[in-house]
Amino acid sequence: MKPSPDPHNFGESTLLGSVISGDEEPARRSGGMRASMFDACQVGVVLRAVLFAEAVVGVAAMFGADNPLQWLLRFALLTGGVLPATLAWLIVACALKSRLNRLRNWQQWTAGVLLGAGAGLYGCGLLSVMGLLLRPPWQASAAAGALLSAVLLAGLFWRAKARTPAATAARLAELQSRIRPHFLFNTLNSAIALVRAEPAKAEAVLEDLSELFRHALADPAESVTLGQEILLAQRYLAIEQVRFGERLQVQWSLDADADQAKLPPLLLQPLVENAVKHGVEPSASGAQLRISTLKRGGTVVIKVTNSTPAGAGERGHGLALANVRERLALLHDVEAKFKTVFKDGIFQVRMEIPA
């Protein structure tokens, strides 16, 4: 069934059905992958941890403060101990991340809470050495550090849970049910038409199709390289080139220095599929598709741009785009940027990720 022309409906993906979610990391065969609680190396995690600690300090400073000036002095005093302690906790957690992640869940919790108690003692010690505390509250500082550490660990734990849900069978069933059959049928029909006239070309089409579905149904890792995603997109476009011929005009502008940037698996694929489905397929004259990558300092910029046919249909739900945005945020947090623009018949998706 051929979809109606709809240049605004960029919310569906033909192969993956727009729902390869950020939590599509299947559990390991051993019975499920544990969620890691020590993902403390990312900028977003550090910022949230510091802001949380400072918010607690601000509330604590209100106790016993009779006026704003007194509150400010108490806040500055407590910050002098809490901020270094928080940063020390984050640095140690980041440095020992690989070792701590190999522990069982209860051992991770225990290690994190003990690390927080140690950080609390460290902060109290700093204030004591500077002569700002007449009677250092060692026990209270250790308890406060342990409590704040437990709250921070809970946030990191649920954040990791979003990447590694437990229902492996349910996720696989959902994935398989969302794969749209018309892409498969169209590709097989193209291969059948080429079998007698151009058997080598038909074989190449089937190989590309096999590789696409192998990636779609395999157990994906947390991340892959941009270079791997580019190769997968090229396979998909090679299949569609057979189907659409000159109607599909593809331009690549790739920076080799950007190939090692990390992406969630199968992130670029839905964007390229949408460009073909909503740019090329509805247009009798075809459309232009441009994929570009560029490394700028510590950032990699990825753009997927396509022209659209004249006219506008009913706006779609944008599930694929929202899904890609969420998965990108899960991997790179605040370091990732995702933006879409539709102007003068040109639709563009722009992503920025750490190099």
What does this structure look like?
- With 355 residues, the chain is α+β, with helices and mostly antiparallel strands.
- It is 54% helix and 13% strand.
- The protein is built from 11 helices and 7 strands.
- The strands form 2 sheets. The chain has a 5-stranded mixed beta sheet with strand order 2-4-5-7-6, covered by helices on one side. Strands 1-3 form a two-stranded antiparallel sheet.
- Strand 6 (337-343) and strand 7 (346-354) form a beta hairpin.
- Helix 1 (43-62) packs antiparallel against helix 2 (68-95).
- The radius of gyration is 26 Å and the shape is elongated.
- The protein starts with 42 loop residues before the first helix and ends with a strand.
- 33% of the residues are buried.
Q: Could you report the average pLDDT, rounded to the nearest whole number?
A: 77
The run of helices and strands is HHHHHHHHEHEEHEEHEE
Strand order within the widest beta sheet: 2-4-5-7-6
Percentage of residues in DSSP E strands: 5-15%
Distance between the termini: 41 Å
| Sheet of most strands | 5 strands, mixed
* Share of helical residues: 40-55%
